[in-house]
């Protein structure tokens, strides 16, 4: 059985393997911190690798120090979905009876998660060990500010640096006002306006990704795959035209895959996301709505409900237009969604613990009955 442990101790001193300049893993982000995390597995004879793709059917592909791509086994069915290998993970690999296997995943520095549509309230990891979470939005369609706020909340929660990338700037006569609208709902997040057709903004985007791990996130038709091809300098992702009537595209990317960039760094392309449910995103929502949080902190009463209380800074900002009603409603919506998910997750965990205790009690009674039978 494959061990799918997702954490390991850190090594130090002479036992820590140093990344070699000629190693293929350096190109994929191997550094001293990763080497320290891998040290215990190095002593056990494991091989380090970075997962570059997870295929349907339960197999993933990793790149190793010699540059060889190797197919690895999927973790045991029924494991915590958030502990399953995903694109961007660093793994300790061993030879198994049927080929290379993932013995363990190294601790993740960051992870972009969303909730699944499952009634079990499970989470899904879209990308791991990411430095830059680039939220890709097409200017060919009307900006959905609420969706932008949702993506930014998840990006902040991931531990990565959010970046708004507005694509297809060549299709609008003046992208400046649209860029300003996007920036207004993403305080603290940089906004880049780019065009793969004219090349505008591409050099700056490449500079932001240099030597780092980036992931492209967004709807189908936003231009993610075109950006991957432009940034890598080769046709690595299939591209299809978006529909003229609504700018929506079909899913040309069917799995998450990591590509090395020519000047250093790697980039993860992802399929278009139809839905982005929150997952443990309380801190991310607070960061994404830092302007609203600051207003709430300025209220006269610490427990202000922002309804009829005197000295409410939020209601004052809504009244004078400083805080748009749409943004306040979006903030409340995401807060409620995150609280509901947390409550459902807690209920699920309680039910699972209760089931486990019942099974243990039943096993204990069975053993006691067997013992009494032997001594009858």
Can you describe what's shown?
α7 packs across α8. The protein is globular, with a radius of gyration of 24 Å. It has helices at residues 24-27, 32-43, 145-158, 176-184, 202-209, 224-232, 282-288, 290-297, 313-320, 325-374; strands at residues 47-55, 59-64, 69-73, 90-96, 99-105, 111-115, 123-128, 132-138, 161-167, 190-193, 213-217, 257-260, 266-269. The chain has a 6-stranded mixed beta sheet, with helices on both faces. The chain starts with 23 loop residues before the first helix and ends with a helix. It has 3 domains: 13-105, Nucleic acid-binding proteins (OB fold (Dihydrolipoamide Acetyltransferase, E2P), Beta Barrel), CATH 2.40.50.140; 111-269, P-loop containing nucleotide triphosphate hydrolases (Rossmann fold); 282-337, Ribonucleotide Reductase Protein R1, domain 1. With 376 residues, the chain is of the alpha/beta class. The protein is built from 10 helices and 13 strands. It is 34% helix and 20% strand. Residues 1-16 and 240-251 have low confidence and may be disordered.
